[in-house]
């Protein structure tokens, strides 16, 4: 006679397996992010130079956390660049994994989204942004619950990792009560059309940046002016792969909300963040770094929103499968190109 395990036992077993999976992957990701060879990604060499400059009394990177980590690296790791990588990875990887495990409606799908879209981009390459993005991911549940005070504190912490995170403070105005569909659906479209038919957007951006407080406002305005003077004022491709896909998921989310009588607080916030992502990206499209960084930072919310989107349909497994396929295609077509695999042959 075969004794079948009770349903409660099966749930415990499944949770244990998922927990072990998350724990093991966290260790692997932490090791990879720490011991990657300099030059595998296109930012590690810059961080090595910044660390050398710090040793010589020059702060090429002015964020407080970088200065603290550089000092800590000299104290503990004898100015080893891998010590700096470890300190950043020790923040970003565990936070991402714990937040996904604890708050995602579909942890395994969120894990796939995170691994395919953001591990290489943030935890291996843009490590300062990656740590800031992890703190933002941790702050999203506060935004959903309406705990603005906790959210602001976490955004402040994120800005210590990367100053661009101050843009996240604008999300405190998002209500978790009403969808406000007309405004949030049309704002990306209106800004996109404005951008396409306006050639002198840089002056508008400079005027706006000049109203922002220091050091963000002046730094952003000077950046725009320098690009113009150097003749490098090129527009971002507003119809790139990631933006078009995000626009598709945004439209799909809106469609699902139309079919729902009472959207949850989760869905309302996820939908609105998608709208803000697209709107800000289109508006800043004439300033490549600002547009891409803001989009990538806000895009971390996709780790939560894409799994939540799949659960809004009766064919949730099919939608989930489409999301998984898209994630792996994006990993292959876009993110793997961020790595310089040729340099591995020189080791």
UniProtKB/TrEMBL annotation:
Keywords: Membrane, Transmembrane, Transmembrane helix. The chain crosses the membrane at residues 16-35, 81-99, 111-139, 151-174, 183-205, 238-256, 268-284, 290-311, 318-339. It comes from the Bacteria. The keyword Membrane applies. Pfam families: EpsG. This is Membrane protein. The lineage of its organism: Bacteria, Pseudomonadati, Pseudomonadota, Gammaproteobacteria, Enterobacterales.
